[in-house]
């Protein structure tokens, strides 16, 4: 009997051509193969050769096709013709748009450049946008790190020269235990998924520390459901247990950290708490071989952790003594802290014991000789195979900087940073704080700023204060309020500009920052600030220029809109000067390029800045004859020289005799073509002898200079004891000429401890914890990175709205049932939202997915869309300032050291409500400059 089966082509030709570029559906920057048919995008798959994702593609990445074709895409430049917020616009030409922008900006530059505040959101071209702002001359530039994760980044740089994600990662192939703290699924998404998969396949244990058990925490082998804001206490208690048990790597601490550096102990000395230094300014240790003082980096020096030094009546002790005193005290005993953390003492001891067992009883070695910066030869590399990863969950608190520092110190005392099986840096990191620039803020009308805006301060002398000790920046970064604000404070710009403190501005220029919705605390308040008028009937913030690819909630509040392209229509460079795509074993960078041409009158924002910069005559953007220097962003990427031999892209540069090389080299006119032919990226492997111990490894230092990460070798030791923090603390004690204002002295003294400490989140003392007993959090879902995701026709099917998840105890206490709604109230406001039950939650924590709720009328969605009716934002409950305390001041709802927005300090109360038809507050619909999308999104590619 013959089978009569239809002939099916099981491998139809899906594309005529594959174009390889870089995904931008989230910030991970995976390599993608874009399949083209008849000149249109047919589908997207992962690039198997790419260092970041090795072919893996997530739901977001494959849904890029819907992002590229989204009905909400802006179509042409727009000029506001109605009142701000009305959504009344007229389309104008690019010539009109650029003329208008130039007319607005040129007088500001000529007279008072600080009156321009230029801030960018999820921008991946910060080394370029900052150059533009520097050329303009305004001190008011930053990207979104201040409300994202600056605590993690800054604590990492100040302590070890880098933290996680772009800076470092667990040694996934050798680690035996990975602890993740406060990691949701948005940052470093595919690499973590792949890493966890590989580690688990080898039998490594994954431990998730998070109040919420979803995503990575759901697949973890063990889950610690900690109370929000107490991670630092838990970590310091584990440090207590490890130090008491003697389970710390003393050799590593002595050689590679400043635990051995001598600290002035004289209570009467102006230098108390600071390092003892030699005439060259180098911190001193005691050499075990000689028993004498020696510079930390002296050839052959063997630093001692125990001996003290007394001279001229002053005792100097190694920082290790101070660590032992602080962390072995009963204050950090598990019995003293467990309750506060929502854990038991036994649980803390168990976690510490497990770390110790894996680090020391299961130590590994790699037979790779290496030589350290003191010239000592080591015949192998010893690994402590415990590793850590952390993200916003521990950093978005008012104690986040010190919590992140505590986590780094935990890794360091175990000897598990830059050793096999531990945490590994990704080139061009590690880079200590001293290798970064200091912040600059000197304004000269008509001229460029005196240097880069953002950097790392090393004491009060580096603060950006004017002659009256007032902040030079509109966001008050690098002021006494937040001295180490390495990423600026984007979340304070509109609030400060509206209040006119420290001064009023003329123009707010923003890129990809949805400030009137999910990118602001106090969302309703921000909308009001953007539309408020003064007594003369003029807007308090006189002009707003905004660039975005989509009709977001922010569009209605701009006066001039510069429409950006989608990520498949543009050039980008993911640069070593910025946030590169490197792996621990390889240095790498990448590009995006227009795999499709825009079908609308839109332009890549960076190309627009090239032209606007030329029209304004900004240094770096014009030739000597005044003509435009870079035709567009692609031209800049190819031709810009940052330092001799160093450009935005490190790959395919020209060496001697025109030979292609990576790292340093001359401009290569064909560089972008070379990237395209290579799959959109460039990569060079780290040599084997440089694989670990990078900050201390002489071979790595030489390789880093050869590649251009820095110009001279600069080995360093980890800064467990952070002297810059001590200098600020000393100022608050009255030492030095630059003094903080009286009202900030106590806060600086209490929080800027040079050794990591824990203090309660500020909201705990600003609101009554009995009245607001519940912690409220948000997380980004794995399927959506930004508010962009909520318009995506495919991704909306995964998350159409975002219930508020309640733990069993709260669910039962209030008698909630499926389908119920709740009123949630903070000290700042109330929301009405649908609820759902989740058992795997800290008992005092409620939470929801972030950025799913939409304002009606935005993103070309139907006003009946579930996102705009059942979806909601927690942001309405959070204010950028803490509630009044009766001292006449409103304190910032931020980390007092870095200024990071303390989103996760929020406390609320909850009650059942009968209002069940619409999430509240329900803002009136926005009028969008683009029409609502069709009921069904359909198009055909090919025949
Ligand atoms: S993880 Fe991010 S960059 Fe990678 S495929 Fe998914 S959306 Fe794209």
From TrEMBL:
Official protein name in the record: Anaerobic selenocysteine-containing dehydrogenase
GO cellular component: cell envelope
Entry's transmembrane regions: none
Key words of the record: 4Fe-4S, Iron, Iron-sulfur, Metal-binding, Oxidoreductase
Requisite cofactors: [4Fe-4S] cluster
Family matches, as PROSITE patterns: 4FE4S_MOW_BIS_MGD
UniProt cross-references to Pfam families, sorted A to Z: Molybdop_Fe4S4, Molybdopterin
Stretches assigned to the 4Fe-4S Mo/W bis-MGD-type domain: 16-72
């Amino acid at each position: 009997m013959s089978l009569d089966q239809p002939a099916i082509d099981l491998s139809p030709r899906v594309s005529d051509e594959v174009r390889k570029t870089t995904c931008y559906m989230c910030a991970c920057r995976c390599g993608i193969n874009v399949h083209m048919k008849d000149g249109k995008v047919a589908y997207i798959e992962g690039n198997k050769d790419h260092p970041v994702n090795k072919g893996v593609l997530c739901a977001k990445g494959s849904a890029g096709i819907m992002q590229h074709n989204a009905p909400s895409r802006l179509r042409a430049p727009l000029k506001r013709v109605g009142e701000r917020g009305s959504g009344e616009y007229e389309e104008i030409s690019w010539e009109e748009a650029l003329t208008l922008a130039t007319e607005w900006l040129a007088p500001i530059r000529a007279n008072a450049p600080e009156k321009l505040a230029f801030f960018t959101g999820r921008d991946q071209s910060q080394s370029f946008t900052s150059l533009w702002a520097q050329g303009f001359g305004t001190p008011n530039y930053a990207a979104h790190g201040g409300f994202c994760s600056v605590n993690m980044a800054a604590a990492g740089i100040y302590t070890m020269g880098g933290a996680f994600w772009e800076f470092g990662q667990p040694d996934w192939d050798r680690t035996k235990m990975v602890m993740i703290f406060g990691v949701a699924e948005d940052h470093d998404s595919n690499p973590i998924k792949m890493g966890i998969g590989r580690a688990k396949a080898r039998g490594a244990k994954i431990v998730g520390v998070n109040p919420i058990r979803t995503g990575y925490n759901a697949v973890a082998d063990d889950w610690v459901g900690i109370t929000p804001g107490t991670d630092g206490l838990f970590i310091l208690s584990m440090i207590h247990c490890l130090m008491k048990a003697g389970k710390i790597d003393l050799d590593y601490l002595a050689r590679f950290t400043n635990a051995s550096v001598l600290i002035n102990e004289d209570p009467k000395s102006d230098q108390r708490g600071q390092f003892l230094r030699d005439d060259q300014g180098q911190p001193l240790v005691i050499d075990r071989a000689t028993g004498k003082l020696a510079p930390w980096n002296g050839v052959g020096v063997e630093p001692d952790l125990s001996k003290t030094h007394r001279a001229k009546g002053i005792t100097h002790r190694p920082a290790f003594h101070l660590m032992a005193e602080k962390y072995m005290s009963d204050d950090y005993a598990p019995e003293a802290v467990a309750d506060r953390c929502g854990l038991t003492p036994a649980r803390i001891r168990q976690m510490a014991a497990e770390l110790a067992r894996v680090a020391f009883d299961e130590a590994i070695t790699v037979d790779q000789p290496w030589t350290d910066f003191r010239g000592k030869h080591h015949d192998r590399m010893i690994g402590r195979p415990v590793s850590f990863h952390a993200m916003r969950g521990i950093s978005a608190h008012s104690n986040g900087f010190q919590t992140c520092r505590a986590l780094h110190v935990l890794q360091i005392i175990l000897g598990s940073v830059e050793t096999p099986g531990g945490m590994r840096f990704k080139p061009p990191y590690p880079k200590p704080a001293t290798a970064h620039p200091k912040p600059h803020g000197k304004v000269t009308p008509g001229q460029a700023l005196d240097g880069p805006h953002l950097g790392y301060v090393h004491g009060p002398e580096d603060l950006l204060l004017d002659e009256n000790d007032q902040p030079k920046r509109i966001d008050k970064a690098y002021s006494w309020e937040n001295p180490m604000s390495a990423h600026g404070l984007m979340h304070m710009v509109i609030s400060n500009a509206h209040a006119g403190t420290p001064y009023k501005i003329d123009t707010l220029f923003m890129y990809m920052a949805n400030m009137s919705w999910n990118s602001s605390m106090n969302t309703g308040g921000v909308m009001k600030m953007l539309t408020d008028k003064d007594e003369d009937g003029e807007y308090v913030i006189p002009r707003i220029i905004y660039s975005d690819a989509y009709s977001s909630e922010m569009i209605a509040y701009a006066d001039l809109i510069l429409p950006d392209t989608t990520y498949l229509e543009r050039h980008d460079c993911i640069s070593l000067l910025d946030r590169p795509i490197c792996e621990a074993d390889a240095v790498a960078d990448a590009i995006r390029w227009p795999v499709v041409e825009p079908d609308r009158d839109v332009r890549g924002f960076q190309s627009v800045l090239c032209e606007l910069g030329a029209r304004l005559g900004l240094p770096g953007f014009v030739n000597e004859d005044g003509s435009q220097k870079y035709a567009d962003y692609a031209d800049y990427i190819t031709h810009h020289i940052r330092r001799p031999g160093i450009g935005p892209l490190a790959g395919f540069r020209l060496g001697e005799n025109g030979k292609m090389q990576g790292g340093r080299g001359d401009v290569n006119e064909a560089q972008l073509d070379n990237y395209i032919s290579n799959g959109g990226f460039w990569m060079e492997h780290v040599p084997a002898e440089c694989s670990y111990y990078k900050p201390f490894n002489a071979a790595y230092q030489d390789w880093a200079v050869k590649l251009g990460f820095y110009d001279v070798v600069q080995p360093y030791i980890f800064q467990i004891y952070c002297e810059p923090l001590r200098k600020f603390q000393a100022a608050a004690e009255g030492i030095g000429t630059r003094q903080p204002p009286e009202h900030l002295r106590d806060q600086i003294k209490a929080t800027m401890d040079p050794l990591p400490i824990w203090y309660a989140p500020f909201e705990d003392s600003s609101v009554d914890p009995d009245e607001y007993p519940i912690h409220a959090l948000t997380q980004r879902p794995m399927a959506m990175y930004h508010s962009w995701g909520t318009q995506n026709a495919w991704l909306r099917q995964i998350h159409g709205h975002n219930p508020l998840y309640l733990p069993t105890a709260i669910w039962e206490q209030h008698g909630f049932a499926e389908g119920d709604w709740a009123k949630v109230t903070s000290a700042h406001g109330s929301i009405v939202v649908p609820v759902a039950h989740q058992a795997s939650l800290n008992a005092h924590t409620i939470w929801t997915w972030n950025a799913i709720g939409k304002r009606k009328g935005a993103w070309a969605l139907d006003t009946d869309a579930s996102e705009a009716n059942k979806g909601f934002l927690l942001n309405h409950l959070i204010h950028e300032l803490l509630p009044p305390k009766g001292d006449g001041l409103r304190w910032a709802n931020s980390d007092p050291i870095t200024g990071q927005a303390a989103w996760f300090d929020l406390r609320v109360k909850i009650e059942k409500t009968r209002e069940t038809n619409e999430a509240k507050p329900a803002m009136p619909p926005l009028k969008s400059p683009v029409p609502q999308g069709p009921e069904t999104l359909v198009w055909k590619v090919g025949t």
